[in-house]
Each structure stands twice: as C-alpha cells, then as structure tokens.
Amino acid sequence: MARLTLNHPPHNVLTVPMMKEMAEAIEGLNGQGEVKAILLQSSQAAFSAGISLEDSRPDRVFQTLDAFTRVFQAMIDISKPVIVVVNGPAIGAGSELVGFADVVLATPKAKFAQPEVKLGVFPPFAAVMLPQLIGPKKTYELILTGEALSAEEALRFGFVNKLVPEAELAQQVESLMARISEFSGPVLEVIKRVIGGAMGLPLKEAMKKSHDLYLNELMNLEDVQEGLRAVIEKRKPVWKNK
To answer: 96 near 125, Cβ under 8 Å?
Structure first.
C-alpha cells in the first residue's frame, strides 16, 4: 500500500507545485506490483480548502487547470484502487479531488462544497463529474447555491462509501486496506480497469470491453489458476501477483 498525505498547513490549499508533486507521486506507482492500493489522506484539520487564490487568477488559471487535470487523470489512469479518507472540510477542488477516488471513507466532521459561484466562476470538473455521482438535481443545487453537502448527505447520495466515527477511523482504514491487500494485485488492477473503463459507454460496448479484459488479460494471470486451485483444495490462495 502507498500512502499519500496532504500536508500544506493550515488548510491544505492546493498550489500548482503541490498538484504536480501529487500527480508525479501517483504516476510513479505504475508498474509497482507490490503496491496494491493507494491511500490519500490529510494531516490537517481540513481535507483541502481547494485551489489557492493566487493560482486562481486569470493569468495563472491555464497552468492551474493543467496541473489539476494531471492529478485527476493520474487517479483515473492508475490501475490501483485509490482510497480517500476525509475527516474535515473538502472545499472546491478539494471536493472534486474526493470525487475522483474509487472508495471514500469519511467522518461526521467531513463536508463537501463547491462554492465557486460565490467567486463568479464554476467548478469545471464537478460540473461534469457530479451528475454521474449524485445525480443532476443535487448537482444543480450544490453548484448554483454553493451550499455544502454534509457527511450524512454525502453518504446518502453515494458520494462517500462509509461514514465512521472519528475515534474508529484509523481502525476502519487499516481494516479496509488489509482486506484489499489479501487479494491478487493484478486482479485488482483488471477490476479497476473494467469498472472505470465501462463508465459512460453504451451497455453493449461496455460488455464487450469487459469480456475482452476477462478473456485476454485476466485469464492469462497465474493468480487466476492459483485462485481456482485454492478453492478446490480448500485452502487460502498464495498469490504470486502475476
């Protein structure tokens, strides 16, 4: 497991250099078979307050969007599942960052907001991504009003997977990561590629993509044979991660 921690006191404001560093860290995990999942968390009270005001200026916004896009593309393209832990406010780009996670654990202290309209702009990624995650009606409400989504609402709308008390957060995170680490790394990678690659495609095309990956990649893995043998022999599989 790889751990990435946002640590830009006091509110984890996202700057262009910070986003470049995040993207490079995620991209650098490609091909590292011993890493089965990526954990993204914060060391501050806030998960992230979003893009810095300096990097939001019109003369710098091109570079900012470019850096931001690279982070999100890295999260999507990485074949390893990305788990995000939120124990405080995730605002603006910070909330968008959470939206690109594969699994999200949050505490009641978490909240998610897209307040860009208050600054006279709109959230370019959330405007496209949120309708798929929480539905168009709630997306309109959040982006048009700038009001926050509470942790409880985020759970109800499927924006987060699990809401846990803060006192239990560390144990829940370790339990989830331990569970994922029990399985074959290459199999996990194929699973993420199937789910991520099928979203937005017509059903027939998505099914074809799934079948192709199943037959041409999954079935070529040694771990598939090991998994079947382990079931027959009534034992735990010993993964070779290949």
So the answer is: yes
* Nearest-angstrom CA–CA distance, 7 and 37: 20
**Using CB atoms within 10 A of its CB, is residue 200 exposed (0-12), middle (13-18) or buried (19+)?**
exposed
* Cα angle, residue 52 at apex, residues 50 and 56 outer, rounded to 5°: 105
Token pair of 138, please?
């709630």
The predicted-structure confidence for 2-30, as pLDDT tens digits, reads as follows 999 999 999 999 999 999 999 999 999 98
Give φ, ψ of 14 to 5 degrees: -90, 120
Q: For residue 27, give both structure tokens.
A: 């991209």
Gyration radius from the chain CA atoms? 19
Q: How far apart are CA 33 and CA 30, in angstroms?
A: 8
Give the three-class secondary structure for 53: coil
- Point out the residues of the chain with pLDDT beneath 70: none
User: For the domain 2-180, what is the CATH code?
Assistant: 3.90.226.10
DSSP assignment letter at 49: -
3-state SS class at 215: helix
Q: What are phi and psi of 212, to 5 degrees?
A: -60, -45
Whether the predicted model's global pTM rises above the 0.85 cut? yes
Give CA torsion, residues 5, 130, 50, 28, to 10 deg.
40
Q: Measured between alpha carbons, how far is 142 from 115 in angstroms, rounded to an integer? A: 8
